[in-house]
Every structure is written in C-alpha cells, then in structure tokens.
Give the backbone structure.
Amino acid sequence: MTERISTESASPLQFPTDFPIKVMGRRVDEFAQAIVAVVTEHAPDFDPATLEMRASKEGNYLSLTVTVHATSREQLDNLYRALTSHPLVKVVL
C-alpha cells in the first residue's frame, strides 16, 4: 500500500507566514507596477509600500523584493507561476 503525502504537509513552511520573493527584470518604467499587480492578484493584502527596489550596477536591471503574507503552499505556487510567466520577468527567487 502506498501512502500519499500532501504537498501542504510535506512543506517545511508553516502557514500563514511572511515570505519574501525576489523578482528581477529589465529596468523599464512599467516593471514595478506590473509586478505589484501580479502580486496583489494572488496576495490581496500585499502592501506595495513594503516593496524593496534595487537597480543593477549598470542600471539595466531592477530587482524587486516583495514580502507576501502567504496562507498556503498553493498560493505561493500560483504566485510563482504567474511571476515566472510574466513577459517582463527574467528571474524569480
């Protein structure tokens, strides 16, 4: 008999939790606004005022750190999928 382990119970994270996500992309005017829109779609209580921004040394790329109050692994997985599939995003950590 094979026992199935749910993703929720296999996660080392305890929910709810504040979870930082780093999102990197080309430095274009609409990048930060686009990322905030995606994040708030999946985490409606996200406060855009907490967004941290850092430009690359040459100024061509922008790194954003968003900290969401995650309520489940499914929520984080959906958010990661939405961010990684966004055309302005290069990397999500």
Q: What stands out?
A: The chain is about 30% helix and 30% strand.
